[in-house]
Amino acid sequence: MKDDKFTFVNDVDSDVIDPSDMIQKNIDFDIDSDEPKFEFVSEEERSERIKLVRTIIIMIIAAGGIFAFALFWQDSTSLLAICNAVWLVSILFFFMGWMMLMSNMNILSPLVYGAKSFAKMIMGKGMATDYYTYVQLKEENPIPGFYYKSCFIGAVISGIPAIILLFIARA
To answer: Whole-model pTM?
Structure first.
């Protein structure tokens, strides 16, 4: 009878790398070196993170304000009133993102330029630029996609609890 049925784990040759082989044996403790030991976050990445945190804080405050306004407007704190307030937050975030996206695509430019020129004409003033220049300025300086994408994400995040609350309130 052979004992080949059982083998020890350490005796098996495999493609698995031994963790002890991955440890660096020679650690350099050169203090006077100009090369940093740790990888620092670049200034651009840091500013992006700060912008993201600011946007999240502003959106949470805006959502809380809209939610509180909707509850005070309804003068109720029932489950259906809370559901309506969450729906209002979700719809307003979606609408803000949609308007920024449409502004970037110059779909609303004729409407906005026409309303501005009409209002200035009534006040006796003229427009500073013509329509073509207005459209070119919008194409050269669009609203960053970060803002309307964050509005859409906020709408989805607040829309999911709104749907759940709707099913709970209707049950």
So the answer is: 0.67
